[in-house]
TrEMBL record, chain B:
Pfam families attached to this UniProt entry: FixS
Highest taxon of source: Bacteria
Lineage: Bacteria, Pseudomonadati, Pseudomonadota, Alphaproteobacteria, Caulobacterales
InterPro entries recorded: Cyt_oxidase_maturation_cbb3 (IPR004714)
Protein name: Cytochrome oxidase maturation protein, cbb3-type
Organism: Caulobacter vibrioides OR37
Amino acid sequence: MSQGLALHRDLEAFVQRDDAGRGRLELLVTGARCAGCIGKIEKAVRAMPGVSAARLNLTTGKLAVDLEPGKADPERVVETVEGLGYRACLFDPAEAGAAQDREGKELAIALGVAGFGAGNVMMFTVPAWAGLFGQELNASTLTLMYWMAAIVATPCALFAGRPFFRSAWASLKRGKANMDVPISIGVILTLIVSFSETMLGGKHAYFDAAVTLLFLLLIGRYLDHRLRASARSAARDLLALQAPVALRLVDGVEQGVPVAEVKVGDRLVVAPGERVPVDGVVEAGRSELDNALISGETALVPVAEGARLHAGALNLSGRLVMAATARSEDSTLAAIARLMEAGAQARSSYVRLADKAAALYVPVVHTAAALTFVGGWVLGLGVREALLRAAAVLIVTCPCALGLAVPAVQIAASSRLFRKGVLVKSGAALERLAEADHVVFDKTGVLTEGKPALIGAPDQLVALAAPLARASRHPLARALSAAAGAGPVAVDCVETAGQGVEGVIDGRRARLGRAAFVGVRGGDARETELWFGFEGDLKIRFVFEDRRRADAAETIARLRRLGMSVEVLSGDLAGPVGDVAGALGVSDWRAGLTPFEKAEIVDRLKSEGRKVLMVGDGLNDAAALAKAHVSMAPGAAVDAAQTAADLVFTGEGLGAVVEAVETARESRRRALENFGFSGLYNLVAIPAAVLGLVNPFVAALAMSGSSIAVLLNAARPRLGRRA
Amino acid sequence: MNIILILAPASIGLGALGLAAFLWTMNAGQYDDPEGDAARILYDHLDDKPPADPER
């Protein structure tokens, strides 16, 4: 990042300007955690010329910088923040606008208004209930109370109900009925009936029920939104982080250009530590590439002039000059992104539990209400009494409990998982996870740790080579120095890109690197190795292996006990994949797969009716992650994989996968219990309402009673199981 | 009974005041950065006022 920014680029596109020419710039800052960070960053940025104000939002990590007219140097701002030791990148203004949580704000305001209405309407309805039980309250006072309740409740209910009305209308236009349809009809009909009763001096008006119903439902709706919003903003930040820049070489001068503008034949520079922006061929330079995220291959690939490069590969050691052979849109990465998009679309058609319940509930309740009206009329109750009873049916069967049944359980489950280091992106993800019956694991970085570790080397040999290893930033050298621990560093070190490092240890010249570099012929290309030797002395060979995660075998056994079948799909060579699968007792494995083959296999499993849980971490898994029924990625996974996955787990172990599956199944059971409870409750309430036994007091009691029961069931700790 | 005509509007007025205060804090962006606000209050040199224009 900082290498790219050291060059001159026109970043005016990232500045939003108002009419007076004052600019606003947004940066995503990672690493800021405390009050000290805020002070350091804001002070440094404010002190810059041309900056009038700076404010860091610690919750979202966004730094908003106000610029004076004319002078704008976004690069300097980024450099200043990075100079303080934080990672910073510019936020696309279009993304920044979308990042504001409008929906959450609207729901919170609706919730506030409904809460106000529900609280204050009680002032008038509680005395009215007293009148229902024969206390001293004459008819005109009752009517007065109802009128005052109407004045408070009606505007509140109409305002707070807007999210439901809108959603119900949208659903009806598509010719379907979601949960919001009975809610909207119930609220509006209740208000109409209550008004007509109040005007006619009747005893039953349900203004309190209408607004309390909305208040309880909005609580559920808001919880559900919070769950999704946190995950969505994380995904958006990832997209903004990928604001890609390629370095184009024009007449020997490096120029930063957006990757989308790279044309076939352009000469590009890839500095060490950066990713290859588009597919291409090396023109000059030598280096080693880490393809793990593209193909899942663990071995580092040496490249020299003429070698093919795939977009997304990480350049490890040397500066490369390459010729682009494809535009960004035609590169491997873009093809993976398109597959991901297709997967996400297919997934959005998933029907959630609550909507399935609504599909059952809506016709039953509405038929019951209609029959009550028609039946009551025919049996001679009169239009007014018949309509009142029909409205009572709609009110007591209020879908509060149904509306809360799922979100309350899912919030409890996801906060439990969050404490265990698993981030759940949406409630729907939990529902899909509960259905999964087949687990597909990626190998590199999932079943294994994803980084090389030294194996089987005696301590004294490691100590011999360690001083030179400490001088290098190469992943294998780092693994070697990690095995040796802290100690002296060699002097006069020179690193040769793609070859190795040379330096002086205790006065003797030594080399550490590839076999040829150290002076050994051959070497074993099938294994990841590093050679070390003093000048004119014996050469020592170090072998590295991608270690299995400590609890991989246990995790697989536990998943099998849960009735799930396990399969391994990897892009790595057959040898290492077979070894890992064999050691873990998985007979179902495939190696050497391209990202597209992985996605295809997942698709085929899906068409066989399997519900696939995909666990993967690489770019090569992203498409399969998006296509699977449900997917998980470790916290160390590439951004794209984390974006595509439904759940992200942190920590060293794989145990989180089992934990998540168990919790998801448990919460599905809880949600079904809640539905069962609501059904049982309606079985009693509907006949009571039809027979005219329900009055406003009973309706209010039944409504809050059923909602509280559902909430308590959701919050109930797990019984008879270890936590 | 006439007292109701004074007390009822008065209590609704108080409730409405609370609601108005909530809406104001919402629109003033006071819930936008709970973590940052908790940190800002600790030091005098930090800007502990809400952002001037949360909507921009």
